[in-house]
Amino acid sequence: MESLIPISELNDFVFCPRSLYFHHLYGGYSTALYHDTPQTKGNIAHESIDEKKYSTSKKWLQGVEVSSEILGIYGKIDLFNTETGELVERKRKIVKVYDGYKLQVWAQALCLQEMGYTVQNIFLHSLVDNKRYAVEFSGVETHCNASLQEQIQKMRSFSLDDGFSQNPEKCAHCIYAHLCDQTNF
């Protein structure tokens, strides 16, 4: 039986499959060893969700664990409004809506649906500037599901021996660049 894939790793894998590999090497160590300032600030920004202190209203699911047997994934959602069907993924600062962000929230939405909830809308919320970005979902669930399945298959079959095209812009922001034999700094 294949193990479940954490939803948070979808975004990481799209960023760079190699960085996800290095992240797993550090898995048992304190994040203080390898997290840079942006990762630390992001973790601090998530504390209200992790501690379920965003709201006391019963309509909000906060930091709830979700999973999908169909996709073989699991993770946590940030916020889901059970009355309006709005799923909200909070990021410290969004400068661009990346494909990895979309895969992450699509996965969360499909997990919620498999668990019996109805997702009407998906939003990415940038905490620093308090901006919301709508992520298309309604009517494109089939496309979302296919994109997720394709990405999950790539993750399951990934090997460090696979061909690699360096992206200098991504590598410049990668906290594992010093470990990667493909990074030219």
Describe this structure in words.
With 185 residues, the protein is α/β, with parallel strands linked by helices. The protein has one domain (5-158, 165-179): Lambda Exonuclease, Chain A. It has helices at residues 8-15, 17-25, 37-45, 47-50, 99-114, 141-157, 168-172; strands at 5-6, 60-62, 65-68, 73-76, 79-81, 86-91, 121-126, 131-135. A five-stranded mixed sheet has the order 2-5-6-7-8, with helices on one face. A three-stranded mixed sheet has the order 1-4-3. Helix 1 (8-15) packs across helix 2 and helix 1 (8-15) runs antiparallel to helix 5. The longest helix is centred in the last third of the chain and has 17 residues, at 141-157. The chain is globular and about 50 Å long.
The chain-level structural class is alpha/beta
- The count of strands amounts to 8
Count, helices: 7
The proportion of residues in beta strands is 15-25%
Indicate the overall shape.
globular
* H/E element order: EHHHHEEEEEHEEHH
Any guess at the CATH architecture? Alpha-Beta Complex
Rg, please? 17 Å
Instruction: Specify the helix fraction band.
Output: 25-40%
Which regions are unreliable across 5 or more consecutive residues at pLDDT < 50?
Answer: none
Tally the structural domains.
Answer: 1
CATH topology: Lambda Exonuclease, Chain A
> Mind telling me the CATH class?
Alpha Beta
